[in-house]
């Protein structure tokens, strides 16, 4: 069903308003200040600064890919403090919450953010530019005006309002409770909010912009602008700072910086299915935790589907219609878990920079789901059909079971297999 496919999608469409798997030993690494490791064989990436500063923030994550369709954290904002559940989104730029008053908001007024006095961010404040598209002309001419924001998502939802700054208490892993004032959006207008996540108060945008909570904490010297997330079928965790970067066991690749948007991207990739080339080459992908499933452009999607169907020849599965997702298979017996089909599917691998050392390997759970109808379905969708054009997105499903690190201090992205059950503090 169309709405289910789009569930949890929170990719920011560039706002033209004016316009190898290794086991990471996480337990060992938590207590250390991560200096990380220079990536293997990529000379353009700088090794981590040994003078790494600050502490780190750790937040437990709730959610799953199916049936919830998104991962979220609960943060506390304001004085008196109030809790807000925010959708984690590496595909957009900054945090926003539903505000009072609001048109189209899903939360009851008492659970929304209340704007007090002296909390507006003004146009003249340097942080305002990071909330705006490249040409904030309105703001330049009216420095004393309130800074406004608007985000549009690929699922046609949008949020608009004003930028505010308020106390954002965070427990640091060194034991300190820090109360920085951080800038975020206070949404007055919501369009097409995701009806399936009515408890979600807003979005925690963690893209490469200077407006993300992580970037703001870094500019204050609290923690480095290094975002880590680890998702599994029961939730997982989110971190800001260097403490959660394992010193070894990570596969690292330099992030693309040339693009005009703030996506985390790597490219180009060649795609293999069960170690055999699928014919997909030169694929640019972005990592988007705000998207439930993985999307490939029409050509790549077709090639992957061919490779999987070919691999299934002679295996006891046949394609069926299942309302959950477009491509599904039925077994001789009802499928209860992916273990029931582990011999029938292969590992999907994205190889970056022409290097077999820099591979993002997706085991079955990172691209298949078992449905209520006891079928197995492909969690990789046709992006072209879903209005994404040529964009290729690695969504939540494919990042499950991995510690993913978006290291903005050193302009690199890293990953390692992990169970993501680590509790902290
Ligand atoms: C990087 O890999 C290439 C080809 O695999 C190899 O020739 C080169 O020596 C490697 N460089 C380093 C620094 O390991
Ligand atoms: C914890 O880290 C913060 C941010 O770097 C720092 O301000 C604070 O002094 C540290 N606290 C301790 C107990 O080290
Ligand atoms: C993907 O979607 C496009 C656009 O709707 C369509 O033309 C194409 O046939 C689809 N590809 C596959 C393999 O279904």
TrEMBL record:
Family: Belongs to the peptidase A1 family.
Signal peptide range: 1-31
InterPro entries: Aspartic_peptidase_A1 (IPR001461), Aspartic_peptidase_AS (IPR001969), PEPTIDASE_A1 (IPR033121), Peptidase_aspartic_dom_sf (IPR021109), TAXi_C (IPR032799), TAXi_N (IPR032861)
Protein name: Peptidase A1 domain-containing protein
A Pfam family assignment: TAXi_C
SUPFAM superfamilies referenced in this protein's UniProt entry, alphabetically: Acid proteases (SSF50630)
Record-linked Gene3D superfamilies: Acid Proteases (2.40.70.10)
Domain called Peptidase A1: residue spans: 71-416
Species name: Hibiscus sabdariffa
Keywords: Aspartyl protease, Hydrolase, Protease, Signal
